[in-house]
Amino acid sequence: MYRMMVFPPMRRVFIQLLGAQVGKGTVIHSAKFINLYRTGFRGLRIGKDCFVGNEVLIDLAGEVVLEDQVTLATRTMILSHMNVGYHDHPLQSCFPSIQATTQIGSGAFIGAGVIVLAGVTIGECSFVAAGSVVNKDVPPRKLAGGVPVRVIRPIEQENAPGLQ
Fold first, then answer.
1. Within a domain: 129
2. 122: closest CA among 59, 69, 62?
3. Any domain includes 116
4. At a CB cut-off of 8 Å and minimum separation 6, what does 125 contact?
5. Phi, psi values for residue 17, rounded to 5°
6. Could you tell me the pTM of the whole model?
């Protein structure tokens, strides 16, 4: 039913009816939500004036929080869990299952094709370059990129006059 809603405002209202918190002015394009059987849409909090681009994938095994004015560009993946397989999988002892809140701070921009792993926090007004794999927290007001992600430089006030 969600996929048949061609207009972003309809998608926003629909996922709100299913339990998500979504702020005013948020635009949701053709995002896909997985692992709904765990937290469901109750595990999704999106602030006001956010933009969720085409083919974005959001894992709702754990909680996902997008604060105000977050942009998720095309094909971004936001994960909230990691599991190598069933309880008897031979790698389970080396890589135990995790489920953790993934949070993106106000004003952050997440570039196309970025993968944000479970439990990561991206600070406010940070910019994550396209194609990055975010496996650790990104501090506020930083330009970060790479595989794995690393901080490239701070985002200075004079470089971004809209930032406070």
1. yes
2. 69
3. yes
4. 105, 106, 107, 108, 140, 141, 155, 160, 163
5. -60, -30
6. 0.91
How far is Cα 74 from Cα 132, in angstroms, rounded to an integer?
A: 13
Cis peptide before 148 (omega within 30 of 0): yes
In this structure, what CATH number is given to the domain that contains residue 141? 2.160.10.10
For 134, the token pair is 């975010």
DSSP state at residue 62: S
Residue 155 lies in domain: 40-159
Asked if residue 10 belongs to a domain, the reply is no
How many structural domains compose the chain?
A: 1
Q: For residue 105, which of 139, 133, 135 has the smallest C-alpha distance? A: 139
Tokens of 81: 């869990």
Residue 6 domain-assigned? no
**pLDDT, tens digit (0-9, with 9 covering 90-100), for 107-156:** 999 999 999 999 999 999 999 999 999 999 999 999 999 999 999 999 98
